[in-house]
Design a protein that fits this description.
The chain has a single domain, classed as Ubiquitin-like (UB roll) (Roll). Helices cover about 10% and strands about 15% of the residues. It has 3 helices and 5 strands; from the N terminus they run E-H-E-H-E-H-E-E. It has helices at about 50, 70-75, 110-115, and strands at about 40-45, 60-65, 95-100, 125, 140-145. The protein binds FE2/S2 (inorganic) cluster.
Amino acid sequence: MDTSNILPLRIGGRIKSSPNGSRTMHMHNPKRDLDSASIKVELFLEDPEGLTGTDQCEWDLLAVEGESILELAVRSGIQIEHSCGGVCACSTCHVYVEDGDEFVSEADEDEEDRVEEAPGLQINSRLSCQCVLHGDGPVKVRVPSWNRNAVKEVPH
Ligand code: FES
């Protein structure tokens, strides 16, 4: 059975909620109309072999309105780490948005708190699972080579 599309309900003891009570998760939405993908996103992979099994560093992709950078990458075969399944409960999906940040959602307080735990923090650091794309782009994103699992263990 292919379990790649199954998301955890609760990881690390923390699920992010919006004011209306829904969790902020931007992964594997089956309702997306991929034919409408028009937002230009350029991904630069520092470790293409580790993320794709190829040596292709630069990827020119088209995203759907409302799609996250992580969701776009994963459906394009780029396996950015996302240990918590895209619910802002780890920092393994850390990327740098190098250009076009007006075409991604602003980081909220939960994301800012979480991304501070990522190694190599920079002013343009974002969690790719929380970066929702809109408009036309282009958006330029660098995926660092040293992603690591930063999920905090919670005692039972
Ligand atoms: Fe865990 Fe993005 S996948 S914070």
